[in-house]
Amino acid sequence: MGEKERILSKLNIKDYRNDLELVLDSKQFDEEAKSLILSVFYKMDNFYKDYSSVKIDCAQKNQFLENYINIIKRKCKKINLLKANQISKNNRIIINRQKGEIESFPNELNLIYAIYELNEKNICYDKYLLEDYTNECVNNVLMRGKTINSTEPIRDFTGWSWNIQFDNSDNIIYNLIFQNALVLLGYENLNECFRKSNIVEALNKKINEMQYDKPGYDFIMDLFELCVILYNNQSKENHEKCFKFKKNLINKKNMLNTRKEYVEDKTKDSSDISKRIQKIDEMLNDIKIIRQEYLKCIEEDKDRYFCISNFVEDKENEKKDLLLKIKENNKVLRKKQYLFNHDDYETTLKLYNFVDDGKEKIGVQNKIIKLQIDFLECMKLKISNTEIKRDLYNIAVQLRYFANLLYKKDGSVIQNDKIAKEFDEVAKELVNKMIENKVIELGFKSSKLNYEILKYIFRTKMIELQNLSIKISFIKDNQIEVQYYDDKMMDYQQNFDIPLEEDITNKKERKTKVFKIGG
Fold first, then answer.
1. What are phi and psi of 50, to 5 degrees?
2. What is the pLDDT of residues 286-336, one digit of tens each?
């Protein structure tokens, strides 16, 4: 039995086995690449249940597996596994989306990352550089986070444990930002935003719909600013683009300060556009001019157009864009729209405050910490608006997941003092709400003691949090021993002092399941 057959024999996915075989049989990948693809698929099948239990809000397993197969089927045309002498520290994956080609270090994590990155839409907003560049920054950062998120089922799960692992500091930051947005907006809502042409507008709208109020506004604006900074930091070219956009915004805002100048500028712009449209019309109505212009273009760049009909189509599309621009100019000349634009420029400029011509790299640690505090403020509001037992349990799972996320290589988010302080307040509020709604019943009156016992919820790495049980033993008059169990296996043990005001009549040893959610 060959390597391919051996791995396939382990798969217990009747609906997908034949699809995967057919896809791989149709591809000219070498056997090592096919073996890695199958191995990834096998692990997804085995680990996805644990992943979805820890994460809660994610794609259905069949949807996730179908997507993986479809990317390989539709997007992957060539996979080249690199040799050791072809790899540098910062160049373990090379993607060519246009050709559908992947060059990757030969291991599962690098290959799955490359496959999902190949699938992400390649948006280039360069032609909108002077109008809406924030979309490029936000798309770039969240798309990278989305790709990292897609590798999580095999990166952090082994079939018996959950352990978040990263070997790249930048990926830690991109992942953290994406997970913040994913928890607050939800899997379906965030995917809906990705499908929109203007992701900034879509995220703004969605966060408002979810009624996070001011904390939601603070979160989304800080997320946009952080995306701008991270995009700016990626390269000198990105920095120059961000700074150019900032200067343009300043010029636009200054122009808007004088209504007369603004009107004159928009009127002149529309006049210039009309002349360009007239020139295109004249060309499209004369085949001789079309040929002349086409030959001129391919002389400058022979690969620009495949044939003359492509050239004509391009000019027709250019005309449509110009007509839309005139329409936009007419809209913004109205007084109300003029005021809106002025406010928009003011708001957007705040996102570029830290972009400076003389400083290519901008520190992000304080911004990341601020975003986590915004996130927790939103979670606090979510808790106060939630009454259903199952929903409160789901928030506990999400907060536990958040508490284990890394914000730097050697530390989780709650190892930062500022974040930990805010997290403690949110976790206490959730615990009190769960006790109030009888999601949890410990039998103690002291909210301090209840929280001290229950805060282990957010530290445990057990897969099924709802399996958590505790055994309480009264070892002294003023002290208890608490053992935490993952089903029948003890996970942790700690002693707690009983407050003097706690009046306990029944001191018998007891073991109880923590969550009373049914189902």
1. -65, -45
2. 888 888 888 888 887 777 777 888 888 888 888 888 888 888 888 766 655
